[in-house]
């Protein structure tokens, strides 16, 4: 950590370059995995970190299945697109990043500021779907960063058959798959060349 | 940064506790803002960091408007919900986090591994909308973390009228608003009490 002190009363902690490298600048999406197990304690810690990130009205809709058993991987297999099959079967862990469409039932507990928060969503299908998808996805990104912060690599994927995953893992529930993410210690030899990014002016403007 | 060396050949950098506090554990969504400007260089740097986070096929659909002029704020005003109005008008910067529904036109450049990537989306409205929303939202989360890493505070919001924002800022384009985010140096006196989070077992399971 570095401290930047542009004014006396406004010293602000900031992340050092090496930490930014770990999380963003040098982190890569991995396709191949070392034969090295992922400690369950790290997965638990990553969830405890990611859940602290902000969501709208603290809706916190993300739900996760960490698939790591042979039997669990076989249930995933028919849902995987050909390009994602081999690496996913080989990954120590594949997380199903999902969201619960009934997240609003928990709002009396999760958002005590607003006793009527449940009524903002109950019966409003479009608002439910959009809120679950947006906030479940924000939380999925927090999880990616949290895993990297703990020294793990990940490989998120959206190339899979959601209906098959939902039927295999979430039948009879209001939970729906969002994306998949392989987790482990990546094999640098199997990285693709890094793809280019847009320039600042193509992304952002000032108004 | 700390190094954890559980095995000789597998030393992995990890984030230290203070950095996790800055990004997640002690970071808060802010509602009040100090009278302290946000250097443009920090906004530019945050974009350069956030754009390195992973998106599906490097689609990178996020687009941003950093609203900081009086005139820009006035264009935003009619779109804001009552609960978000005052704090947004007072924030040094309000980012419109948006996505471009024509992101796929850039894929020949952004995803050179797959020369046919454009055809995965062109003309496929549902795939376009879902991919833009999911990946634009992942990038929005990366931006939140990047801003915090640079010592800034933020206050993301989804309580606003998207149609008004789209008409005021994105008329005649394929860009659509996703969420708003106030950016500045937060006033700790205006924080709400932190809302509770779900327990691990309510979020995640193993399979």
Textual characterization of the structure:
The structure is a homodimer of 207-residue chains. With 207 residues, chain A is an alpha+beta fold. Chain A is built from 8 helices and 7 strands; from the N terminus they run E-E-H-H-E-H-H-E-H-H-E-H-E-H-E. Chain A has a 4-stranded antiparallel β-sheet, with helices on both faces. Chain A has a two-stranded antiparallel ribbon with strand order 1-2. In chain A, helix 2 crosses helix 6. The longest helix of chain A is centred in the middle third of the chain and has 25 residues, at 125-149. The interface between A and B is large, with 84 and 84 residues. Strand 7 (204-206) of chain A pairs parallel with strand 3 of chain B.
Largest sheet of chain A at a glance?
4 strands, antiparallel
The strands making up the biggest β-sheet of chain A line up spatially as 3-4-6-5
- Compute the number of strand runs of chain A: 7
Q: Number of helical runs of chain A?
A: 8
Largest interface: A-B, 84 and 84 residues
- Oligomer status: homodimer
The SSE string of chain A, one letter per element, is EEHHEHHEHHEHEHE
**Helical coverage of chain A, percent range:** 25-40%
Q: Which class of secondary structure composition applies to the elements of chain A?
A: alpha+beta
Mean pLDDT of chain A: 94
Radius of gyration of chain A over alpha carbons?
Answer: 19 Å
Ends apart, CA distance between termini of chain A: 32 Å
Low-confidence stretches of chain A: 4-9
Strand content of chain A: 15-25%
Overall 3D geometry of chain A?
globular
